[in-house]
Amino acid sequence: MMLCKISLKNIKKSIKDYAIYFFTLILGVAIFYIFNALDSQTIMMNVSSYSQKLIELGIQMLSTVSIFVSFILGALIIYASRFLMKRRNKEFAIYLLLGMSKRKISMILFLETLFIGILSLIIGISVGIVLSQLMSILIANMFEANLDKFTFVFSYKACIKSVIYFCLMYAIVMFFNTFSVNKCKLIDLLNATKKSEKIKLKNPYICIIIFIISSVVLARAYYLVTAGYNQLQEPKDILLVIFMGIISTFSIFYSLSGLVLRIAMSIKKFYYKKLNCFTLRQFSNKINTTVVSTSIICLMLFITITLLSTCLTMKDSMNANLNMLSPADIFLTSTMNMEKDYNTYKNKGYNDNQIKNSSLGVFDTLEVFDFNLHQYLKEYVEINNYRTSQLTMNHTLGSKLEEIRKNFPFLNYDTPEIIMKISDYNKVANLYKINQYNLKDDEYIIVSDFKSMIEVRNIA
Amino acid sequence: MDTILKVDQIEKYYGNNSSLTKAIDNISFEVEKQEFIAIMGASGSGKTTLLNVISTIDKVTSGKIYVGGNDITKLKGNNLNKFRREELGFIFQDFNLLDTLTAYENIALALAIQNIKTNEIEKRIKKIATDLNINDTLDKYPYQLSGGQKQRVASARAIITNPKLILADEPTGALDSKSSKMLLESFLQLNQKMEATILMVTHDAFTASYAKRVIFIKDGKIFKEIYKGNDTRKEFFDKIIDVVTLIGGSLNDAL
Ligand SMILES: Nc1ncnc2c1ncn2[C@@H]1O[C@H](COP(=O)(O)OP(=O)(O)OP(=O)(O)O)[C@@H](O)[C@H]1O
Ligand SMILES: [Mg+2]
Q1: B3-97+166-254: which CATH architecture?
Q2: Cβ-defined contact of B100 to A13 (cutoff 8 Å)
Q3: What's the mean per-residue pLDDT of chain B?
Q4: Fewest Cβ atoms nearer than 10 Å: which of A133, B76, B127, B150?
Q5: Stated pTM of the model
Q6: Inter-chain touch A99–B78, beta carbons under 8 Å
Q7: Ligand that lies nearest to the alpha carbon of residue B23, given by its number in the listed order
């Protein structure tokens, strides 16, 4: 009873002092929720199956990044709770001297952390739910989904995931707290309050230099993720930009805090009249927490922006690929001649009927279903591709195989090559209005469209 | 009379071999029930250290300290908590009240830790508040109180549990002479009415003259002891001044 009262009173005070810490926590939880909720937000949308794939990829990325966000948050919580505890050395010393057991002190801390945690979790998820509705509108616009079906969505999965991650983080924090309470000695707690904490003054010139350099770096990073986002193609680049963002954000706030303290101290009147040494110390403490919290807020915003722009890049490049790779409107395939390898295809999930009819081409199959192509389509071609396990990439890459294997270890070199008659190729080329080729006996050309595949083929 | 506190050849060293400070260098003395003792000495002579080891805030390097027959240097865990909770009242020089709690709650804290019922707590606080003349301040927060009022609240917190032993580190250090007098009068009352045993560190000869015995410490050793006996406070004050002059040096600046 008494313990609860003590912790509640202390929280009331802390909330005033550490508004920014709460704000960071809430924002962090909200972002975590949004990232993980996109999943069910987009399911409601009516997008092409192709965009669907793209969105799925994005969602996967987001939930990976959200783990990263939770790490940042965890660091913040541990930092802040240690900081809050340090301020309370005197209080704990009094409890101990009045004969309270260390277990009870840990309990007070536990209750407080729990209360703060639950509060920020509830508010954070509420904010997240609201913001994720906006997010889904944004995504819908991006992928030209039709919004008729838009409804208010609440993601249980994301909610539960946020709660679990948050609880995990808080369990770690509580472990830390209990550990440090058990470790502390009464005499040290008492002396800690008397020892005036040294105000570390940073060298102003170094501060200015750091500030300028990191401003430039940060500006570059922000430019890359906003205006210049289409330069970001590889995951490597994105990581580099995030790294740039993290380092420069922290250094900016670090150097800025040093400068602000300098300025506050150099205004002598201000220093001696308005702020005595004690309040200056408080001031510098406050600056330090503010620095960490603001940096983390900025960082989370930065990561969000980065992710959004990555989504945009992905969408752009995928759209470009889409136009390049399948310029025709409709693309029908059917696997043929499955009867020969009955068992293989049976294992792949084809049923008997499908296998029996597989000697028919696409046109014939459509005719079986009474579907008249001429009625719907202006131009069309039918071509046959062949595959055989006797011609795989191993063969076509020829003597360069070993070298390529080294550089592209992830390719499946046993994939059968797709073989096409030159006459069929020219039919297609005619349709797409691209170059047609003529081949003599014994000659072949390799046609390839993925960028990296082109690389591989050019080596060979 | 019963011996309530027995300090037996204690030593307290700070630092390592290269820079060793003997803050307490072989001190022994005994305190009887209902005694009121002042400890005086120059700055750095080891007074705070002595009080800290008796109150279990710090640990001795060697020697034993008995409170009511138990060696408190060996206490651990729950026994240590129990000792601090039930037998010890500590008054700090800088009050050490909790800013988040009102005066009433600060005092109640000591009883709440002992799991005493709320109405019993209220009864006891009312009584002690009347004794120490802090009835009007109970609902205020520490920042709304004067130094003297805070010191009396802190004293109330220390004595409300009826401890066997009250330790006070320079209780009048931050007070003006009027507040000092008021606090010392309440100490006398505690000492006489409630049979509290008081051990008080002070720089100030006037404050010390309220005690029944004054122990002088110099360089971590007991330099001299004087008893009040049947002297008036004025006569005792003059005797204290004499010893202070004898020790000389830095104690003068405190007068
Ligand atoms: N934590 C510590 N580490 C090292 N030396 C210490 C420590 N605490 C006290 N000392 C040394 O022990 C000696 C006694 O210190 P103590 O605080 O007991 O003096 P004091 O009599 O209370 O002085 P004052 O009247 O100024 O409060 C001093 O020389 C001091 O420098
Ligand atoms: Mg001292």
Answers
A1: 3-Layer(aba) Sandwich (3.40)
A2: yes
A3: 88
A4: B76
A5: 0.68
A6: no
A7: 1
